[in-house]
Inverse folding.
């Protein structure tokens, strides 16, 4: 990039972060509450309809809880309605308490306490309306680059030169980046090989860090969103389809030119060219996405979510 | 118990078996096709779409299990035709697996149309044609013996093992006596009661296999250093009066009645004969339900004490409350209340007969409350995970 300075404008949050979006989130704490959550969200909020929350054991329960909290605590979220069923393994009340302690706008309902799904949807609509009113009072304001955390989902066979160019540009702006990839999934540029490693979905430190994940791009996106990235750059390798995120704009980059051509509507950037040119383009798109430009995934309504699991459901 | 022999209901006779619903299903082959599938189905009602979190990553050790689940689900006899939405042309292999099971299937790939938007436009017309064609399928008399019932419990309480589960056991026995098939599942919820079911095995090898499956599950978790008791009983079970996993299991196994156990099935596998079977599934309600439907169940009977909204996108799910307060409080989520057993207005036997009659009525076309609410739960069961 000719200049390291970027102009950013985002939504300030009480907890200190700056959002690229002003999303309202309806977050079911368990698969059984997913349909009711979607019925509450309609077109007024984003919803994470996921397949988890019950019958987790060990570290897998901790990880799933961490990601649910992380999604709701992401600065792109102006307010969250947590919807539990009541009897599930991952109880919503402690998640609610954690989110409250993080100064997020959060409300909590349980289907079994509401008298069933229909009543929960009705109560949920009321709670959501209150969250929407509060969110409407929040407006974009000028933001320092230090408030930007770029999430980079690193797919298969991503050239080290591209990763290096991209990270150098992020660092030059003063922003932070967290990369998600499987252990040993891509060669790390030497300058960043000692980056601190955070748990899957754990809060990322400022600077450059690394989140371990699986090879699933959607699972990587969930980790990055949960870690606090406001914009995700998704470097899709051959055979890795472009996916979105419920709460983060995703700049989808095809490493393979043929795949870009075949799926051009679903990608934002053809990543097969000169790494420094691609890196310039990707960073410019990420900045524009932060400032409000919709990405291909947002335009097609791709609110994809997949959670990494450490242990099978019991 | 034999008065249901020869009784007929009405169903759809298909190459995949006898169906009791006439759905058109739009199934994404991987997560990246979820939004396309959802938009296609929304534009072509009453087609139904499901979404899932399987990205088909290269070298996924769980691929065979997941593909069997998706292919089995898509070829449920409750589905008249399926559209598989892939991303890459190679995703056609899932459509091929569905076709091999006798299902009418179409396939589109996002990469053949330049992405999601053009694919949705193209496939919407395709699905509208499927909807039109499937609407001409007419139900014909169907023997009750062709019904396959999935037995499930979720959000159990201390009453579940006293009212709803034993009553469902009676209904299951009535179906088996009529020549039908019933599938018990939830390996986790057999821990501590496996010997009781094994003793009912039609063949000693079946009983041995059952014990083996339960023990394999326990040792798999033990090898990971986790205690199953961290998840079982779940918080709501405990609040509902269940004290231990064994107590929960003793109540859970009641759903299977008294019929002899004919076989033990892998997850999402179809039984080869009739009668009572056990399927090796997790206790997670939605993963289990998808596995049983993929295994051929056209109808699910689901008991609940705490009250859950659960339903399937393609199979009617009859919800049975274990107690009247919950059944009344969550009337919109529960089809029949087994609570009257507690105050003597019904016996387990009379309630079991009522449940059986309701199952036949629902098989004949009556909508369940979860169908009316379009509660379309879906989840994929995985056992192997990439280490991270």
């Amino acid at each position: 990039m000719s200049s390291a300075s970027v102009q950013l404008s985002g939504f300030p949050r009480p907890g200190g972060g700056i959002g690229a979006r002003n999303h309202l989130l309806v977050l079911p704490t368990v698969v059984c509450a997913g349909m009711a959550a979607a019925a509450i969200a309609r077109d007024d909020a984003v919803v994470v309809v996921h397949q988890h929350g019950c019958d987790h054991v060990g570290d897998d329960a901790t990880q799933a809880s961490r990601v649910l909290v992380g999604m709701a605590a992401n600065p792109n979220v102006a307010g969250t309605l947590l919807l539990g069923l009541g009897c599930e393994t991952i109880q919503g009340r402690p998640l609610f308490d954690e989110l409250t302690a993080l100064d997020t706008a959060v409300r909590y309902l349980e289907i079994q306490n509401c008298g069933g799904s229909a009543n929960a949807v009705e109560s949920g609509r009321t709670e959501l309306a209150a969250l929407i009113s509060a969110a409407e009072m929040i407006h974009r304001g000028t933001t320092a680059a230090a408030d930007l955390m770029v999430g980079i989902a690193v797919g298969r066979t991503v050239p080290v030169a591209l990763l290096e160019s991209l990270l150098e540009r992020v660092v030059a702006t003063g922003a932070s980046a967290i990369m998600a990839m499987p252990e040993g999934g891509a060669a790390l540029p030497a300058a960043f090989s000692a980056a601190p490693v955070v748990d899957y979905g754990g809060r990322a430190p400022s600077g450059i860090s690394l989140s371990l994940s699986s090879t699933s791009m959607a699972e990587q996106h969930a980790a990055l969103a949960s870690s606090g990235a406001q914009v995700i750059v998704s470097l899709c390798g051959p055979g890795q389809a472009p996916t979105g995120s419920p709460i983060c704009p995703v700049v989808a980059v095809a490493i393979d030119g043929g795949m870009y051509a075949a799926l051009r509507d679903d990608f934002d950037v053809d990543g097969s060219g000169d790494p420094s040119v691609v890196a310039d383009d990707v960073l410019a798109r990420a900045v524009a996405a932060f400032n409000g430009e919709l990405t291909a995934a947002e335009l097609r309504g791709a609110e994809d979510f997949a959670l990494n699991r450490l242990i099978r459901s019991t | 118990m034999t008065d249901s022999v020869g009784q007929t209901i009405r169903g759809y006779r298909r190459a995949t078996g006898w169906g009791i619903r006439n759905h058109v299903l739009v199934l994404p082959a991987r997560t990246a096709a979820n939004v396309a599938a959802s938009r296609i189905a929304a534009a072509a009602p009453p087609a139904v779409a499901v979404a899932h979190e399987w990205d088909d990553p290269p070298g996924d050790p769980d691929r065979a299990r997941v593909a069997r689940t998706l292919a089995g689900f898509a070829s449920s006899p409750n589905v008249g035709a399926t559209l598989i939405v892939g991303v890459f042309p190679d995703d056609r292999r899932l459509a091929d697996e569905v076709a091999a099971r006798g299902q009418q299937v179409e396939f589109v790939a996002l990469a053949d149309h330049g992405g999601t938007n053009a694919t949705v436009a193209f496939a919407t017309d395709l699905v509208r044609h499927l909807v039109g064609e499937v609407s001409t399928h007419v139900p014909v008399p169907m023997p009750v013996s062709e019904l396959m019932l999935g037995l499930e419990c979720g959000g159990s309480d201390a009453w579940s093992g006293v009212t709803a589960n034993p009553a469902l056991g009676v209904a299951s026995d009535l179906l088996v006596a009529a020549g039908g098939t019933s599938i018990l599942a939830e390996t986790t919820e057999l821990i501590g009661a496996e010997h009781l079911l094994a003793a009912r095995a039609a063949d000693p090898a079946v009983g041995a296999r059952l014990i083996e499956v339960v023990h394999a599950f326990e040792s798999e978790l033990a090898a990971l250093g986790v205690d199953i008791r961290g998840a079982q009983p779940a918080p709501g079970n405990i609040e509902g009066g269940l004290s231990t996993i064994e107590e929960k299991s003793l109540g859970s196994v009641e759903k299977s009645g008294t019929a002899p156990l004919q076989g033990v099935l892998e997850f999402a596998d179809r039984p080869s004969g009739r009668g009572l079977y056990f399927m090796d599934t997790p206790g997670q309600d939605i993963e289990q339900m998808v596995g049983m439907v993929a295994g051929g169940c056209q109808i699910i009977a689901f008991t609940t004490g705490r009250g859950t909204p659960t339903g399937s996108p393609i199979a009617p799910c009859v919800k049975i409350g274990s107690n009247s307060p919950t059944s009344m409080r969550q009337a919109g989520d529960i089809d029949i209340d087994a609570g009257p057993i507690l105050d003597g207005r019904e016996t387990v036997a009379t309630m079991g007969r009522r449940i059986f009659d309701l199952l036949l009525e629902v098989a004949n076309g009556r909508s369940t409350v979860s169908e009316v609410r379009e509660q379309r739960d879906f989840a994929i069961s995985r056992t192997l995970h990439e280490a991270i």
Q: What stands out?
A: Chain A touches chain B through 70 residues (CB under 8 Å).
